[in-house]
Amino acid sequence: MSGDADIPEVAPSDEPPKRAALSSDGIREITERGQQKAKERDRQAQEQARERKKQSLLSDKQLTLWVDAVRGAPNEIVRSALFTAKNRKQVREDLKQAVVAVIGEGQITYTGEELRQDDETVWLQLIHLARENGLSTAFEFTPYSFCKAINWPINGQSFDRLDKCMTRLQATSLKIASKRLGDEVSLSMLPGYTAKRRKNGGDGGLWRIRMHDELVFLFSEFQYTRVEWQQRLALPEGLATWLHAYYASHREPFAVKVETLAVGAGLMTEAPEDAQLDTADRDVKRKERLRGVKKLIVKALEALAETGFLVDFEVTRSGLVNVRRASDEHQIF
Fold first, then answer.
1. Can you give the pLDDT of all 333 residues of the chain as single tens digits?
2. 87 Rama sector, left if φ>0, alpha if ψ -120 to 50, beta otherwise
3. Quick one: which of 301, 315, 310, 302 has its CA closest to 331?
4. Contact between 202 and 144 (Cβ < 8 Å)
5. Stated pTM of the model
């Protein structure tokens, strides 16, 4: 008789092996991973859809939808203080992630040297040339032809001024958000710029420019302003040109407060020394500044009437500005 007991064999089971129960932390970790993957898929899908839309707009040549007599400008830009109405000879601030005043819907954040109305004239002409050449490709021009198109004197001083404007526009970071845009548009206002200055020859050599293809979103869905070019060039540079573009951006201009226009044109910025004043004194300074801007607005509106852009205007005692454009003669305010 053997000392080893017989060990019965265990028949294999058809049931799958039981898994250890997951802890609540394990379940939460798996859920979070799944959510992160879903968010990443959504993000990639949105990026792909946005890129398809951009390529579609570029192929449709969205920037060709205005005639040679006008210049196109995004509504959010001309209703903002991005290109201020300050005198171009004033010292310009270096701005970093500055929130730009916008009249109406939209948000603009800007980094770069402060921009003025001469910079806007240059930028509008660059966009116009991009309309002819395409946003996806670089294009060339002479400073002679460019200065002629923007009605600047044809000389070396104007070429230098143009070069400074281009350099300012190149060293920028611009972010625009609005309901119509959906995703935020972020770009440099002039990502590519090379000036080949020639000492001999009267045209100043060939300059090469490349605009940002993200610009196409700012001109989509016809949400942009058509600026009558010869009217703008005939106006005194500053508040008159700012108001010209602002009022051109509305289908039907409505009454606006003087202070709203002053802020939108970038003319209500406090002087650095005002920050040391108490609240009462700062308020006195603000009211003084506003009275001065009101006079400037009246003078600018007179210039707009002289060029034929406005038929009539009124600045009420309560500080409301009403205008009637030449194209609105059937309307009464």
1. 444 555 555 555 565 555 556 677 777 777 777 777 767 675 565 555 545 554 555 555 555 668 899 999 999 999 999 999 999 889 999 999 999 999 998 999 999 999 999 999 999 999 999 887 777 789 999 999 999 999 999 999 999 999 999 999 999 999 999 887 777 889 999 998 998 776 545 677 899 999 888 887 788 766 789 999 999 999 999 999 999 999 999 988 999 999 999 999 999 887 777 777 888 888 888 889 999 999 999 999 999 999 999 999 999 999 999 999 998 653 333
2. beta
3. 310
4. yes
5. 0.79
